[in-house]
Amino acid sequence: xxxxxxxxxxxxxxxxxxxxxxxxxxxxxxxxxxxxxxxxxxxxxxxxxxxxxxxxxxxxxxxxxxxxxxxxxxxxxxxxxxxxxxxxxxxxxxxxxxxxxxxxxxxxxxxxxxxxxxxxxxxxxxxxxxxxxxxxxxxxxxxxxxx
Length: 147
Known about the structure:
- It is built from 5 helices and 3 strands; from the N terminus they run H-H-E-E-H-E-H-H.
- It is elongated.
- The chain is about 60% helix and about 15% strand.
- Keywords: Lipoprotein.
């Protein structure tokens, strides 16, 4: 009887772990799917910079949007690495700037700004935002980044 109860508990834990592990990749697949659409406003520069910065060990996730030569980038950093945000932002800025010296790069680790930029990025890739509206939203985001 005790052996049957232990087996049922182990089976439940294994099924839970398998289902939880599978769900984590759905968000990544959705992000890749979203990036495969061609946006109205070219995001090539932002994508290059985000790719380079995403290789940093401290960075969990990067969102980036560009308009002309302005690139807005947010980094998601968690755990112990959050104690070193200033150094991480500076390193990310330098890596992004190395791709295009003429561009203006804005880097933030603020979670609210990250959420706002993710929404803007989604609209850019869904083609539901005009260039003028994007400029207005990015200007507001820049002001929020400053404080």
